Amino acid sequence: MTPSLDNIALFVEVAKTGSFTRAAQALNMPTSTLSRRISEMERDIGVLLLKRSTRKVGLTEAGSVYFERCQRLVVEAQMAHEELLGLTQRPKGRLRISMPSSFAMMYMPFIMRDFSQQFPEIDCEYDLGIQAVDLLADPFDVVIRYGSQTDSGVISRQLGSARLGLYASSEYLARHGTPTTPAHLQEHKCLRSSGSSVDSIWELSSVDKTESVTVSGPLSVNNVAMLSRMATLGLGIVPMSDAKCPTLATAGSLVRILPEWSFAPIPLLALFPSRLMPAKARVFIEFLITRLDTVL
């Protein structure tokens, strides 16, 4: 018996996530129903596709071949359905987006509100984190991250870039003095995203030269908004974007130091599991690019 495309799509989701529970959450259906549908599918075609254990779900040899063939088929069917709906109605459905919390707090409140007002049929579910995401396994339609990505299999689109300079409060500079060269940063308290050696080496460029300096300080926080807040309280020097963002109003109490020196621009990327992007994700990205262009 030939399985229905619906059941094939269920199998593809389980194979992608390696978990009946995570697949059921992504599909918004009970885990027991999903497991039963897959078992019925295997029984109908007479082939075992999944290896089940108490901890994880894996693919059999036949299941691996079947998954490779069916994955693109399911995506193309979903895209055809989206395009058909697009002829008669606006994009709709649940859209899952992952983005760093600091980015969301600084730039997204008004964008989130306006997007929901313009596309009320799209239910947005935002995850605010910076953890590594497996786009094939985790149930996100769009993942937004800063920095170049090492996974060559990931599809990306640049939304903009962050241009960082160095800032400190007037209070801090009055107490500790103002650096006049990058090398002077070694004598100051510098606020970093982590205490790792990578985040403690700041590479700054001017018009015709680049300098690297190893910095230190008593405080590191993996949240840009919190780092800027700590800087306004006089705790040290912070790398910060000079973006035109209204939620960075506290930056008015900070002073740009070494203004002729800056960090290399950091790309802001939208990552996708496939080039075949559903309409709800496409309109979100286009909306985001238009709005971020006014603040980045």
Describe this structure in words.
The longest helix is centred in the first third of the chain and has 28 residues, at 61-88. The chain has helices spanning 5-17, 20-27, 31-45, 61-88, 101-107, 109-118, 170-176, 224-232, 279-292, and strands at 50-52, 57-59, 93-99, 122-128, 142-146, 155-162, 164-169, 201-205, 210-214, 238-241, 254-257, 266-272. The strands form four sheets. It has a five-stranded mixed β-sheet with strand order 4-3-5-12-6. A three-stranded antiparallel β-sheet has the order 10-7-11. The chain has a two-stranded antiparallel sheet with strand order 1-2. The protein contains nine helices and twelve strands. It is elongated. Helix 1 (5-17) crosses helix 2 and helix 1 packs across helix 3 (31-45). 38% of the residues lie in helices and 22% in strands. It is of the alpha+beta class and 296 residues long.
